[in-house]
Amino acid sequence: MPSSSFFALLDDIATLLDDVAVMTKVATKKTAGVLGDDLALNAQQVTGVNADRELPVVWAVAKGSAVNKMILVPAALIISAFAPWAIKPLLMIGGAFLCFEGVEKLFHKFFHSAKEDDQHHAELVKAVADEQVDMVQWEKDKIKGAVRTDFILSAEIIVISLGAVAAKTFATQVGVLIGVAIIMTIGVYGLVGAIVKLDDLGLWCVRDAATSLIATIKRGFGRFLLWFAPKLMKFLSVAGTAAMFLVGGHILVEGIAVLHHFGESLHAKAFGTVLSMLFDLVVGIVTGAIVLAGVAGVQKLRGKLA
C-alpha cells in the first residue's frame, strides 16, 4: 500500500505540473500585450545612460521587478483565496487600464510636439556629458522610475494571469503565477539587456579595420545591427500598443455579456477569428479613449479647484 500511495502522489504531482505548464502558456499568451509594452518601455528607460552602465541599470531594474512580483504574487493569491469575487472586477480594471495606456501612447504620438521630444533627448545627452551632474543619483532616480513603471505592468500581468486560472485549484494558481512571474522577469529583462547592447555590438563590428573576408562580413553585419536596433525599438513600441488594445479589449469583451455574445456571433462567421480580433481592437480603442477623456476631465477640474 505505501508504494501505491507513493505512485499516486507522483501521479498527482505530475498532473498538477502538467496543469501548471498548460495554464502558464495560456496566461503568458494573455499577457502578450503587457509584455510588448514592458519590453519597449524598459529598453527606453536606459536612454541617456552611459554605455558601460546600461547592463548594470537593467540588472538593478530587474531586481526591483523581482521584488515587485514577490509582493504582487502573494497579494493575488490572497485575493483568490479570500475574495475570489474581486478577480473579475480587477481583471476588468486591468483591461481598461491597458486600453487607456494604448490610447495615451497614440495621443502622445500624434499630438505631442516632435520639438519637445528632441528637447528632452538633448537634455539627456547634456546631462550625461555634464561633469557637474551627479550621475550616480541621476541613475538611481532613473532606476526608481523604471521600477515604479514595472510595478504597474507587473500588476497587470499578475491580474491577467490570475484571471486565466481563476477556476483552477489553488495549487495550480500558485504554480502558474510563480511561473509567469519568473518567465516574465527573466524574459523581459534578458531581452532588454540584449536590445540595449545591439548598437554597441554593431559599433564593435563596424570598427574592425581588417581587410579579410570575415572582417568585411563583420562590418556589414555591424551596419545591419546599427540600422536594425532603432527599427526594432519602433516595432516593439507599435506591436506593444496594438497588443494592448487587443488584450485589453478582449478582457472587456469577455467580461461584458452583451459584448461577449456579439463577439461570439462574429466568431461564427467567415473569417471569424479576424473579425473577433478587430472587434476586440475597436472595443479597446473606444474604451481607452473614454477613460482618457475621463482622466483629462478630472485633471482639468482639479486644476480649476486648485
Tell me about this structure:
The chain has one domain (2-234). By secondary structure, it is mostly helical. The protein contains 11 helices and no strands. Helix 2 (32-45) runs parallel beside helix 7, helix 3 (54-82) packs parallel to helix 6 (135-164) and helix 6 runs antiparallel to helix 7 (170-196). The protein is globular. It has helices at residues 2-30, 32-45, 54-82, 87-111, 114-129, 135-164, 170-196, 198-206, 213-255, 257-267, 272-305. Residues 1-20 have low confidence and may be disordered. The protein is 87% helix and 0% strand.
* Number of contiguous helices: 11
What is the oligomeric state here?
single chain
End-to-end distance, in Å?
75 Å
Count of the domains: 1
Task: Assign a percent range to the helix content.
Answer: over 70%
Radius of gyration: 23 Å
Overall mean pLDDT: 76
Structural class: mainly alpha
Main pleated-sheet profile: none
Low-confidence stretches: 1-20
Question: How many strand elements?
Answer: 0
Succession of helices and strands: HHHHHHHHHHH
Question: Looking at the structure, what is the overall shape?
Answer: globular
Percent of sequence in beta strands: under 5%
Features:
306 residues; 0% strand; single chain; mainly alpha
Helix and strand arrangement:
Blueprint lengths: L1 H29 L1 H14 L8 H29 L4 H25 L2 H16 L5 H30 L5 H27 L1 H9 L6 H43 L1 H11 L4 H34 L1
Helix pairs in contact: 1-6, 1-7, 2-6, 2-7, 2-9, 3-6, 3-7, 4-6, 4-9, 4-11, 6-7, 8-9, 9-10, 9-11, 10-11
